[in-house]
Amino acid sequence: MKLKWFILPLLVCLSLPIQAQEATPKYSIDVTGAGLKPIPALPNWGGTNAAGDKVTATNYNIELNGKPLAFIMGEFHFQRYPQSEWEDAIIEIKAGGINTISSYLFWNMIEPFPNQFNFEGRNDFRAFIELCKKHNMRLIPRIGPFVNAEVMLGGLPPWLFGMPYAERSNDPEYLAVVKRLYGKLAEQMKGLYWQEGGPIFYVQLENELTQAP
Fold this sequence. Notes:
Number of helices: 5
Largest sheet: 5 strands, antiparallel
């Protein structure tokens, strides 16, 4: 008698998962439909270089001459290395199968004192761009002003914190010094954008604005 009462609850318990599984709704997805077809996106974005190569965008990809463009990207912070080592580093990066270099720029090294800019030695941004062009490597400069690259103050120059305005904000005075920085960097990049035959494919502004102080 005891054995019968033991078996009955066991059978009830075993049947519960089966019943729940049968009640689970079933869905079907059609992966052959026209909804997956790439369509043009960002109509005002892209351009054509002097060689006639055209960059466009779809809802899926950035495309070069109508074909998806793969960015196989490696990070190289050129300011951390002597200028004499840059070319070897680019060659080695390319040999590893990388076709695009991205690099932060450290504002605190470029403008160590207010309105005193240094683009020599490790800071020779234009020389680095030209080396990327020489070795047919796309370049994506990540020019800050803040860069989350394990560098003091995110690359913001210390003198910035002695000023009567809030850094990394919409404070007009802060934006004015950032605009000054961007203007100097634009001078270094002039004539070296992809549309002009250079390696600069696009430029990243700021870095993790809501994730770091």
